[in-house]
Design brief:
168 residues, mainly alpha, 0% strand, globular
Length: 168
C-alpha cells in the first residue's frame, strides 16, 4: 500500500495506519528536529510532541499527499516553540576547540536572532537544512516567488546588521 492511501486511511481514523505512518516518517522527522534542536534529548522531546499533535489533529489534514509536509510543519513549529522557551545556545564540541569560528558563530547567531522569527526560520531552512526555494514554498504554503523575495529581503537585512566588515 502506498503512503498516500495509508494517509487517507489514517486521516479517516484508522489507528493502525496512523501508527504505521508515524513509524515510516520517524527518521525523517527526527532529522528535522535534530537540525533545529542540535541535541538528541530535545529532538526526541520534539518528536514526542509532534506525535501527540499528529494524533490529536490528524483529522484536520485535507490533502493526504501533503501528510509528510504537515508533519514537518508540526516538527518545525514544535522546535521553534521549544527554542523560545529554552532561550539557550547549544555549542557543539567541534567549535569549542576553534575560538575564531566560535566567535564568528556567536556573532552570526546574535545577528540572526535579531531578525523576526519568520526570517530566522527562512535562513534555517535555506542554509542549515539546505532546502530549495520550491521545497520551502511547499512547507510554508506560499508561492516560490514569495520565498525568493523574502529571502532577498532577509539577506539584505542580515548584510546591513553585519555591516560591510561583518563575518566573511
Amino acid at each position: 500500500m502506498d503512503e498516500i492511501e495509508l494517509a487517507k486511511q489514517a486521516i479517516n481514523g484508522d489507528e493502525a495506519a496512523q501508527l504505521l505512518l508515524l513509524q515510516i516518517y520517524k527518521e525523517a522527522m527526527y532529522r528535522v528536529a535534530y537540525s533545529y534542536m542540535q541535541n538528541e534529548h530535545d529532538a526526541n522531546d520534539a518528536l514526542q510532541e509532534m506525535t501527540y499533535q499528529c494524533l490529536k489533529n490528524i483529522h484536520k489534514v485535507q490533502t493526504p499527499q501533503y501528510f509528510k509536509t504537515w508533519l514537518v510543519r508540526i516538527v518545525i513549529n514544535t522546535c521553534l516553540m521549544m527554542k523560545r522557551q529554552q532561550k539557550r545556545i547549544v555549542i557543539t564540541d567541534d567549535i569549542v576547540d576553534q575560538p575564531e569560528q566560535m566567535a564568528e558563530l556567536f556573532e552570526l547567531n546574535d545577528v540572526i536572532t535579531k531578525l523576526p522569527i519568520e526570517q530566522q526560520e527562512l535562513i534555517h531552512l535555506k542554509y542549515f537544512k539546505d532546502l530549495k526555494n520550491s521545497e520551502i514554498a511547499t512547507l510554508q504554503k506560499i508561492p516560490e516567488g514569495t520565498v525568493k523575495s523574502r529571502l532577498h529581503k532577509t539577506l539584505k537585512k542580515l548584510r546591513h546588521l553585519l555591516g560591510e566588515g561583518g563575518i566573511s
